[in-house]
Design goal:
Layout: H1 15-30, E1 37-40, E2 55-60, E3 78-83, E4 90-94, H2 106-109, H3 111-118, E5 123-132, E6 141-150, H4 171-180, E7 185-191, H5 200-209, E8 213-215, H6 219-227, E9 231-241, H7 252-276
Parallel strand pairs: 1-4, 1-5, 5-9, 6-7, 7-8
Antiparallel strand pairs: 2-3, 3-4, 5-8, 6-9
The chain binds 8-iodo-guanine (8IG).
Length: 277
């Protein structure tokens, strides 16, 4: 893993101070002291925020303390402030995230979440692209995250910070999503460090452990979001069957294609859910 660089490299830096500084820049640039709902757009979800409402402001990540450029093809290195429908509520939409596998450290991974909390958001919608273990799911199927297995062996919490993770993925928000899209299935999301995909043997291990979806994000962010007191909605877009579940080899192009194919269903879902939060 590469050495940590940037603002989080110095262990004396308080990550919550950086989040506060980032939130101040966002407040100034958007002319909005408080955002209400944050969204993190993962693989396949990039076009899904467009139906939420009018984009009031776009901010280059590079202009905001602690944020870097998008590391993944198909992700956008800008954050957007969106007016939710015709209300005066605002969504803060992150076009990309920092992944654990980038080697920038966990503080960088959860910086977006902490910034959203500092910007006033009480709810966060964490989306991702994931491999599916349930052969009944076809690529392009959105799945609600019911619970997770954090197999990264790390935590975003530092020190004696004991946080209850029962109902981490807020039941009320899952029910709300199902009122919008009654066909939504639920599953247990499993975060592995990546960036390689799993071997078929690892996928079988995950299945034995009770996992339904495999990915490289979200669980560390969810933990940090709960530490910040936020309600959490987790949504995976099943973009590919996990390795060995089907004969087909995995490719990132498949992920991008599934996202495009699912854009309408995901966009409609996100907009309707955010409107009701
Ligand atoms: I998109 O099959 C996407 N992300 N670990 N495995 C893991 N992450 C993923 C996968 C997958 N598909």
């Amino acid at each position: 893993m590469s050495t940590h660089s940037g603002v989080f490299a110095d262990p004396q830096t308080d990550p919550f101070d950086v989040a506060k500084a980032a939130a101040e820049v966002i407040a100034n640039r958007t002319g909005t002291a408080k955002h209400d709902v944050a969204l993190v757009l993962g693989s396949g979800w990039n076009q899904s925020a467009d139906l939420i409402g009018e984009t009031v402001e776009e901010i280059d990540n590079a202009d905001v303390p602690g944020f870097g450029k998008a590391a993944v093809e198909g992700h956008s290195g800008v954050m957007r402030s969106i007016r939710i429908g015709d209300t005066d509520r605002r969504a803060l939409v992150f076009g990309t995230r920092t992944h654990y596998y980038e080697g920038k450290g966990i503080r960088a991974v959860v910086h977006g979440v902490r910034t959203a909390a500092a910007a006033g958001c009480s709810t966060i919608v964490l989306t991702n692209g994931a491999g599916g273990l349930n052969p009944a799911w076809t690529p392009g199927t959105p799945v609600l995250i019911r619970d997770h297995l954090n197999l990264t062996a790390v935590s975003p919490l530092e020190g004696a910070t004991f946080i209850d993770l029962t109902d981490l993925y807020t039941p009320r928000l899952r029910e709300l999503a199902k009122t919008v899209d009654p066909d939504l299935d639920e599953g247990v999301y499993v975060q592995l460090p990546g960036p390689h995909y799993e071997t078929p043997a690892e996928v079988q291990m995950v299945k034995t452990l009770g996992g339904d979806l495999v990915g490289m994000s979200t669980t560390l962010e969810a933990i940090a979001a709960r530490q910040a007191g936020m309600d959490i909605l987790g949504l995976s877009l099943m973009t590919n069957l996990a390795a060995g579940i089907s004969d087909a080899p995995l490719s990132h192009q498949e992920v991008i294609d599934a996202g495009q194919a699912a854009a309408e269903r995901c966009g409609t879902l996100l907009a309707a859910v955010v409107a009701k939060i």
